[in-house]
Each structure stands twice: as C-alpha cells, then as structure tokens.
Amino acid sequence: MSIYSLTYTPQRLKTIALICIVTALIINSIYFGGGYYSNPLFFGIASLITFLELALVSLVCTTVSPLIRRRFPKEEQVIKKLSLMIVTFMLVTFFFKYLLFKAYAALPYFQTEFNESRLAWVYLSISIIIIFLTFLMESIYRFNAWKRTLEDTELLNTSYKQSQLNALKSQVNPHFLFNCLNSLSSLIEEDEEKAEDFLNELTKVYRYLLRNDHEHLVRLHTELDFLNAYIHLLRKRFGTGLQIHISIHEKDRSWYIPPLLLQVITENACAQHIISKQQPLVIRIESAGHHILRVVYNLQPKTFSKDMDHDTALNTMIMKYKLLGLELLIVKNQDGQQHISIPLIVEKKETAP
C-alpha cells in the first residue's frame, strides 16, 4: 500500500486500517473460499493474521515510497517513478503473501493446503489494488503539493502587497508634511497668530497620523473627523475661497477606506486649482448610493512648472486601491467638474499575517 508520508496522523491511520481490513476480506475470500465464513473463530483469526500482514506491507511500502520519490523528483521522471513504485510494491506484497499462505498451510488449525491457483488469483487482485492505490496516492500527493504551492504563492503575494502598501504609505506622510510646512511658512509671513493656530491644528492632525500609521484601513467616520481638522487648517489659509460641503449617509460612516484618502484628494484639489474669493473652489464630499463615496469639485486649474508633481499622493492612493482589489474612478471635465468615485470597503481585512 503506497503511503507517501511517514507522518501518521489519526486520519491517515484510519485510512490505512480501512484499506487493510477491506483487502484482508477480499484476499481471504479468494484463498479460503466458502470455508472462510464457515466458522466465526476461523474467520476472526484469519482476518486478524492477514490484517497484520497487510499492515506490515504498508509499513514497508511507506518507508520505500519517499526514497523512490527523492530518487526521481523531476516532473519528467513521473512514469519511471510510478513504474518503480508499482513493481517494488508488488514484489514486497507477493513475497509477504507467499510467506503468509505458506504459514497457513503449515499451521494445523487452518487445515488447508498451499493452493498455487488461488494464490495466483490473490496476486492478480492485489496487483489491481496496488496499481489503483499507487495512482490514487500519487494524485493526492500532487494535489497536496499544488495546494501547498498555491498557499506559498498567496503568502508571497500577500507579503508583496504588504511591502507595497508600506512603501505607498511612506510616500504619503512626507508629502503631506511638506505641503503643511509650506502653508505654515506662508502664514508666518502673513499673520503670526494664524500661524500659531495653524500649528496647533497641525499638531492634532499629526497625532491622528501617528495613531493610524500602522493601519491600512480606517472607518469612514474616523477619517471624516480627521478631515474636519485638516479642513480647519485649509480655511485658516484660504478663507472663504475654499468651500467644502460634506454630506454622508449615517450607514456609510461605519464602512472602511484607506487613511488619508479624503485628505489627499482635498489637498490635491487645493494644490492644482485657483482658490480666491472671486473664484472659490467648491468641494463636495457625499454619499452616492451603493456604498460609493463621491468627491466633486469645480475645475479652475493653475499653471504649474513642468517639474512640479502635485499628483504624486493621489496616484499613490489610486495604486493603494488597486492593491486592495478596488478602483478609484476619476472622471475629468464633466460639466467643468472633476468627479472621483470611492468604493467603500465592507470589512477590514488583514493584508499580511
């Protein structure tokens, strides 16, 4: 019986025992004929002896099988490997069966002669069983190997995504700090009191960043609380030139999004567009139904020099959503507005063990 592992789990032992019991009944029925069932004691003793012989054969085959597998590990050697296994298992089985039936003939209790014709039928039956079990166990072995490979690949993909998410996250915080420091620098020149208030709010904002630095997803209501603090910073700088309206359904607030996503979108809009009392930038953040969050703002772009990259953080978030298996849908120039659709995430999933 070809068992490809030396690890005897309870389930594996049950399987071996079941195979040995069934095979013992088949073998004894062929060799002893009707006399096998004539006496309960005879039936029990013969069944036990044959069962123990089959268990010994299974032990030998279990020891030999990994040796053959290690000798022929390559995929193109599978025919040679299976052929050698079948031949080896047959020889081992035939040897022990010959000894078994010689022992039955020698023991007076069984009152039977060595029957070569019935032994040949036993050999034929055993050969069919061996071939079937060898191919069955090879299929199980290959399936388990494929499953382990799949699990290892999934683990590698998860680890790779984790490293990518960490890399993307490390891009967002410095970018955000750089823009905040620029704003603070401008306020220091304009109004020191506003600059001090701005710095106090910035402290609150960065407390949020540090608290959620290890998270890849946060609840929407948590992100909105942070966004309100960030909007407070923006209004100290832009005044009435920036108008932000938030309208979120209560049921959507408990769902998840990547942290800083709304801040990045808001920051990107402010960085790329003219903001003044005469040309206010109006940003609307609202529930769009079907667990979709929509950000809409009017397009009034500034003129930038070629070396300025204000889309870095937004592109980072787009890539982060792709890693999470979702997509940020951005539609430009729709009635002079830009629409960003954000899928909300139902449940928080760990990206790595």
UniProtKB/TrEMBL annotation:
Coiled coil: none annotated. The chain crosses the membrane at residues 12-34, 40-61, 82-100, 120-141. It comes from the Bacteria. Residues 164-240 form the Signal transduction histidine kinase internal region domain. One of its GO terms (molecular function) is phosphorelay sensor kinase activity. GO terms for cellular component: membrane. It holds the Pfam family His_kinase. Keywords: Kinase, Membrane, Transferase, Transmembrane, Transmembrane helix. PANTHER family: SENSOR HISTIDINE KINASE YPDA (PTHR34220). This is Histidine kinase. It comes from Niabella drilacis (strain DSM 25811 / CCM 8410 / CCUG 62505 / LMG 26954 / E90).
